[in-house]
């Protein structure tokens, strides 16, 4: 029983580490734009690094028919955009100071982070 | 890229009181999204069929050959091309097609086509989910019935092992066919170090299936009492969740009815007069200054100015104003409205995304996607929800294994699975946006444009409504009613001189005097040294005479004797007229009174606000007597007279200090500081002028009933959000412990994973359905 409890605690530890503590890798935007695919329940890439004080364009391409994927929100930039299925939708991020700007769908099931630095 | 810097500025100057500079910055960002449109000389096309880098040159060259194209740059990686041009988008698309590729206008599909595509996509997805549901339930339901009837879902004999193995593989088939999207989504999220609803479903059903297969393959390793299989749970959960998602799509479709109605107002074609001929062209191809002919019964295609003909136009669909409006030469016409009686020709002044209708649609869409602050807590919870539920599931399994009755393993598996399945982050996530979507749409139907979720929430809490008098309570078109001569001048001379002085001012009172002079046919001269004394009056020089026109305060400041004319002025004021003094070379010449009639339904609307427990305060620059008379007529007890423009903002702040949540209604220009300080700034539209988008809430028609409607719809929406949030919180807060088996020691109750699956599937459906109830909301008839 002790082993089972220990395994259980390790699993809890792994959940905390994997979902909250792990520093995810971020994709850097080159040439001022990047394509973000919305497919199979996730944004790909979900973590995007963009240079500070420069305008960049995120080209969202939604291939996922789930209605949740339809709305893209970047609350801190007050951006909300409707992603049309199988169409590219361009979202222009204005020049911003360094910081982390999460983006997600309405229900926060699709999640990503825009890291400006 | 930003084609509307001025509008962005306008946002900034008048944003709501509790917003910070971030809000202003954010408004700028709003104008920067969706900039790849066809209205700023810059057009972006999506290219299909370009497979090699050499295509780039071919496409660019083809585009550059189109007349009016100054540059064309293709981004091969994105398969997009950015064109600087004044050619119509369809010409550009044709050029690309002639070069052998396909092209579509990026982000600039007609809204109607986009809605149609969305509906088709939703319908296809709905059918797919229903198919998945049927497959899953056709295995799950018989299995569940078998289990309920026989009570036997255990593995004891070799025959049972073989039968359950076959059923296990069939369940795997259901998981692959009907539940593939959950597992793929869960795996992708996992790789991204995030977790979502898919994670919970995949873990829940996966655990049940894996445990059951362990029982089938290695029964010896599982205590005899725990040799149960849960294939029916796996299949049922997948089936029910697919059903829930399908029904949710249906219900969601209804939440966007209002925007569909607005989009439906857009005409598809326009009859343009080119080279003397009338030709029908798609509205996307209408250019500025095109002359457009509209016959009776037809819809106005773009915004413009009538150049020929006379008609009456039904603007009710945009403003809620039921009476058709007469239009003749030089009057504005607005896209989406319907020409009733005559035939007209108008000149296109705003096309594409610049038309009032397009801006309204854009604004409503934007507002529908924004969240009021009340939803923020749910967002924070959603962000941590899934991993927390996973931890609870592990803890619950451990608790059963340590302290549970036999068979501990079975109890542990059932409780962990049920916890994973019952938890529904979707209901929490949907609670706010669904209601906002319906509420903002409902408001738009009543001619009330709400800028964002924050404005919606603040409007629901308003305790005091501050109304500017002129143009808000009254018509805003005052007329001269009395000219009391106080010197040797005759009436025509006085009117001529006063009108000459006032011709430099844009104040409504000044305009009334100029208008009256024109009507009387008296001359209006040019003046020099014009000076506007804010909130008091004006002065100027004419033929070496210094003319002064203004209120009592101004006359006193300039030490002008008013004698008994003060009494006369007071008498006029008591009749709700605005008396003003006119002096020449520091000597009083006349008292001129103008009156601005109260709008026909203002009294009713103010009464409605007061009846709903809202304190109404009137602010006016008028003297005390006039203010009192107007307030009395309008049924207002609180009024502040002789208010300078900057004092309006102070009054708002003073009310806020008293603890009031203040709504301020004004014309959006003179009242900008007060609108900005108020908790909610309301702008009254002059019919269809959406330039006053600066306010938190814009009333599309002049009636003050719009205020009561806006507050009523905001209250109804907030109530709906609270119900949804409460329901979603309670569901999870009660459901998760129940699923974990907290009540088992006391009541002997443990939830079945199948019931949990049904509850989870229908919890988000309930939220959407409840939001849809808002569609029944009706602004009070008036």
TrEMBL record, chain A:
Leader sequence residues: none
InterPro entries: Cupredoxin (IPR008972), EfeO_Cupredoxin (IPR028096)
Record's keyword annotation contains Hydrolase: no
Record carries keyword Magnesium: no
Any Pfam family hit: Cupredoxin_1
Record-annotated membrane-spanning stretches: 6-22
Domain EfeO-type cupredoxin-like intervals: 12-116
Keywords: Membrane, Transmembrane, Transmembrane helix
Protein name in UniProt: Cupredoxin domain-containing protein
